[in-house]
Write a structure and sequence with these properties.
Blueprint lengths: L3 E3 L2 E5 L5 H11 L6 H9 L3 E7 L4 E10 L2 E9 L8 H15 L4 E6 L4 H10 L2 E11 L5 E10 L10
Parallel strand pairs: 5-6
Antiparallel strand pairs: 1-2, 2-3, 3-4, 4-5, 6-8, 7-8
């Protein structure tokens, strides 16, 4: 798949050549970032990695998706701090849903920190519903742990009433 142009940015599959930049953005964006090795393992295991770049080539954000049986699991979605609040997160989420649908999977599952209010609002506005909680899922400050809210986006089945 070649890059998909979106006004002043484009998306393309994540490759090994992207991983130094991806890991650098991850460290800037998160207090408890994934390691470069986490991204390498994801690509090696056949997960979907998507990079969003500005037309200048600057990495804006990325996401990693893992197919699991009949649904997709959004493992990581990140927007570089300088590019936040400009619609990149929504564009990456739309791409994740597009890929999930193209793979003929039933829906998209994710975990999010309860303290990540902006992400929760984005997911809820998009149509994700909270379906549970994973206790002590994320590392937190002072060697603590933070729960995860589990959210799911489900496609409307053919013949069902309503819209996706």
């Amino acid at each position: 798949m070649s890059g998909v142009l979106l006004a002043d940015r484009y998306m393309s599959p994540m490759t090994d050549g992207d991983l130094d930049e991806v890991a650098a953005v991850e460290r800037l964006a998160y207090e408890f970032p994934w390691s470069r090795g986490n991204f390498e393992d994801s690509l090696r295991n056949g997960y979907f990695g998507i990079c969003m770049r500005h037309v200048t080539g600057t990495l804006i954000g990325y996401c990693v998706l893992m197919p699991v049986v009949d649904e997709m699991h959004l493992l990581n979605l990140c927007v570089a701090p300088p590019a936040q609040h400009a619609g990149a997160g929504l564009a990456l989420l739309r791409e994740a849903v597009r890929i999930t649908h193209a793979e003929k999977l039933d829906g998209l599952l994710l975990e999010v920190r309860p303290s990540n209010h902006r992400a929760i609002r984005l997911y809820e506005r998009f149509g994700f519903a909270s379906i549970g909680r994973r206790k002590n899922y994320y590392p937190a400050r002072h060697r603590g742990r933070e729960d995860a809210i589990v959210m799911r986006f489900t496609f409307v089945k053919e013949g069902a009433h309503g819209a996706a």
